[in-house]
Specification:
The chain is mainly alpha-helical. The protein is built from 12 helices and 2 strands, in the order H-H-E-E-H-H-H-H-H-H-H-H-H-H. The N and C termini lie far apart (52 Å).
Length: 282
């Protein structure tokens, strides 16, 4: 009798949540299972996940640029139209709780994972970095972009005529150095060994987030804290944060020794861009 009551209660909860989260007349990605949702998307390795992402994108694109996929009983809306993406990104400030949970330790309570309208953290940080999007500031980075592009081309020339190769490392390395130069005005190209270590740590953190997302048991913090995956994440997050601290330390040293007669335009540009790292993490 007790089991019947429990089953009945669960059915009532399921029906209530399904009605409350009903997405309306939108195309739902095939393969949904009651309660479990589109669980097939969680199966397989990273290659299989990438194939699923491409299928989801194609399905959404071919069905009016909007579709729904279910994570359990929770609907997740997929959009492919640029105008829709802009509309959502500028009006929906609250981030999903489970997404914040997965990324909070890595990115902190900042621009990407901080709460939205409830505490206005997102608005405060976005207002802080607004000057960085000034066209004059962006144009001042063209020299850096061109120099980094030429350096990347020279690096890739070494592989010409030698068959296939993995270009991922070269692209990540160039991106990391370019971000540091533009966001903080700090050149880190001379610490190649540590940069490579940070890139590998960043990959490991991303892989860990994906692995957690694919294992429903790890959605529960008490279980995840006791897992090996959590220990691995802690170690790699520490490495990535060390890079952030190094960049900020170098930037502080530059400010401490900077000539007061330096042009105000350059100083203003770098002052705003240096806020990026702090904003994203905190």
């Amino acid at each position: 009798m007790l089991w019947l009551l429990i089953i009945f209660a669960l059915c009532c909860v399921y029906i209530y949540v399904s009605i409350k989260m009903y997405p309306g007349d939108m195309p739902v990605y095939p393969g949904r299972v009651p309660i479990l949702g589109n669980i097939s998307l969680l199966l397989g390795d990273s290659i299989a996940s990438w194939r699923y992402i491409k299928k989801l994108t194609e399905y959404t694109y071919n069905n009016g640029h909007v579709s729904v996929v279910y994570a359990g009983i929770m609907p997740i809306y997929l959009i492919t139209d640029p105008d829709d993406c802009y509309k959502v990104s500028t009006t929906c400030l609250e981030r999903p709780g489970f997404a914040n949970k997965f990324l909070k330790q890595f990115l902190g309570n900042g621009l990407l994972t901080g709460p939205g309208t409830s505490q206005a953290i997102w608005k405060q940080h976005r207002k802080l970095i607004n000057p960085a999007f000034n066209q004059q500031v962006v144009d001042s980075f063209m020299g850096i972009f061109n120099a980094q592009s030429r350096r990347l081309v020279e690096t890739l020339k070494n592989h010409v005529g030698k068959g296939q190769f993995d270009h991922h490392d070269h692209l990540e390395k160039t991106a990391l150095e370019t971000i540091s130069l533009t966001m903080a005005g700090v050149d880190i190209s001379n610490q190649k060994e540590f940069n490579y270590k940070c890139l590998m740590a960043f990959r490991a953190v991303v892989d860990g987030v994906i692995a957690r997302a694919k294992n429903p048991l790890y959605y529960f913090d008490n279980i995840y804290r006791t897992s090996i995956l959590k220990k691995i994440e802690d170690a790699h997050v520490k490495i990535t944060h060390e890079l952030t601290e190094q960049v900020l330390k170098k930037k502080r040293e530059v400010y401490a020794t900077e000539d007061n007669k330096e042009s105000s335009e350059k100083t203003l540009s770098h002052s705003y861009i240096a806020c990026w790292i702090l904003v994203i993490r905190y």
